[in-house]
Design goal:
There is one protein chain. The protein has 174 residues and is mainly beta. The protein is built from 1 helix and 10 strands. Strands 1, 2, 3, 4, 5, 6, 7, 8, 9 and 10 form a 10-stranded antiparallel β-sheet that branches.
Length: 174
């Protein structure tokens, strides 16, 4: 039986048409690389040491670095700038665009006689401002305060809040 060139091309064409209609292309999932962590750390401690000594210490149980933000869980951050020690501890934190967003059992302490607690807060590095939207509890050398919507300017030591109740020690007032 003689096979002509026309028959050969007809068989090849039929085979290609069958492949085109019968075989489906693979479904390949694409991933958003912008939301993939570039670095992950577990039970870590980071230190920034300058010529004057320790500038900053950051501890956490788990941390992720993304292209545009950092996420840290069980954060404990201590800053030693201008001989003023500040400490921030929280269950979770997201750092993005020079703003630190904190959530869960937040404790902010500056020096020995200034400390506030809240369940959510944020710290703006550029404005040097710590704020809470919800309830807070503030303890200073003069007394104890509770309220809503705390604003604390860390450089000027100015505190503002709404709906404040206070226990104030008059013996420590000047």
């Amino acid at each position: 039986m003689a096979v002509t060139i026309n028959t050969f091309f007809l068989l090849v064409s039929l085979l290609l048409i069958a492949i085109f209609f019968l075989f489906k292309p693979m479904d390949i999932e694409t991933y958003d690389n912008n939301d993939t962590a570039m670095l992950e750390l577990k039970n870590f401690q980071l230190y920034d040491i300058g010529s004057e000594g320790l500038k900053m210490m950051l501890q956490g149980e788990f941390g992720k670095r993304y292209a545009e933000r950092y996420e840290v869980y069980a954060i404990n951050y201590t800053s030693h700038v201008d001989h003023n020690e500040q400490n921030i501890a929280a269950q979770a934190a997201v750092y993005q665009d020079n703003i630190l967003y904190l959530s869960g059992n937040i404790v902010y302490q500056k020096g020995m006689d200034f400390m506030f607690r809240s369940n959510e807060a944020q710290y703006d590095e550029n404005r040097h401002m710590a704020t809470t939207m919800g309830m807070f509890e503030l303890k200073t050398g003069e007394g104890s305060f509770k309220g809503h919507a705390l604003e604390y300017h860390t450089e000027a030591d100015i505190v503002r809040a709404k709906t404040v109740s206070a226990l104030y020690d008059l013996s420590k007032a000047d």
